[in-house]
Amino acid sequence: MIKIYTTSTCPYCEMVKEYLKERNAEYEEHDVSNDEASQKEMLAKSHQMGVPVIDIDGTIIIGFNRGEIDKALNK
Amino acid sequence: MNDLIIIGGGPAGIAAGIYASRKKIKTLLITDYFGGQWIVASDIQNFIGFKSISGFNLSKALEEHLRLQSDIEIKDQTLALKIEKKDNGFAVKTNKEEVFETKTVLMALGTHYRKLNVPGEDKFMGRGVFYCATCDAPLMKGKAVAIVGGGNSGFESAIDLLPYASKIYLLEYANTFSADLTTQEKAKNSGKIEAITMAAVQEVFGDEFVKGIKYQNRQSGEIKELAVEGIFISIGYQPSSEIVKGLVELNKAGEIVVDCKTQRSSLEGIWAAGDISDALYRQGNIAIGDAIKAVLNIHDYLKGK
Fold first, then answer.
1. Which of A70, B47, B246, B268 lies 20 to 30 Å from B193 when distance is taken between CA atoms?
2. Molecular function (GO) terms listed (chain A) (predicted)?
3. ipTM of the complex, rounded to two decimals
4. Structural domains of chain B ordered from first start
5. Residue A49's domain spans which residues?
6. Which of these, B106, B104, B97, B110, lies nearest to B7 by C-alpha position?
7. DSSP state of B71
8. pLDDT tens digit string along B123-178?
9. What is the DSSP string of A41-53?
10. Which among B126, B128, B135 has the least Cβ separation from residue A12?
11. What pTM does this model have?
């Protein structure tokens, strides 16, 4: 299961979404701008506040890092 | 062997790619991703031909235009790591263990965020220290924040933060702000911003997350603290010229010194355009023009003119 934490204004979040779509990976998006519960969840998982945060089956990736995303997807 | 390798996928790299392809120059373009610095700009109002467009959508439009060209090879998601001078041109090594040979190189790698280099900056990165206000402003809802830098990027960060932050301190090292007056007015009219000049930032502090910022008033020498939960560093950019260090002449700022008529660097066979060059003004529109100039000159060069 893939969860991504985003804000509505963040271009790198769009890139993550496009990248996952290219790889036919389904994801659930949580916009943390207006959703405090998701914001807390993201903080707890990544111990930081920058977006995007990607949770691929428990592997937490901060930022649009293709190498890390590929590694986690191929696990 | 390629005639030309373009390194970079911002406005300069893309414009060069389109022109090179139409000139039938055998070209390879290497870039991590397409976009460039303006990708995080939420609203661009001075790109000629567009009344208002986000940097992200503008980048998409440019990339699409490039990908329509039939005569260019594109390696995206790839970083150029090293350029080596050979007898008849250059060899460009990538992070994917590939080596490409070429007669000429156009450096269009642009710049990356400049860091402040004060204690706490690295430790709190993402934990209150941010470089992209467009991205992370919504997380600052109801919080006091500080922006470091009173140039265009600083004031644009302030505008991105206005709908969210409860209070915005804008710290500038010099005694005046260098941002465009229209941008300054837009920010200052909000009443939420407290502008502080002559401020030398000394430290970012906190526990798990940022709690504040310490700066010295350069006039009085007094050390002051501001209680903030977010610090946005907007002190400009530094040229991504590491891979040509020692190969071509760089100025003190690390920019590639070019001849402004042709965009040629100090080494025959290497050109540069856009923010990586020592161009006087940093604008997407200008980067595009300079890159086109470079390709036309490369075309002449390859024809032996």
1. B47
2. electron transfer activity
3. 0.75
4. 2-112+237-302 (3.50.50.60), 129-233 (3.50.50.60)
5. 2-73
6. B106
7. S
8. 999 899 998 888 889 889 999 999 999 998 899 899 999 999 999 999 999 999 99
9. HHHHHHSS--S-E
10. B135
11. 0.79
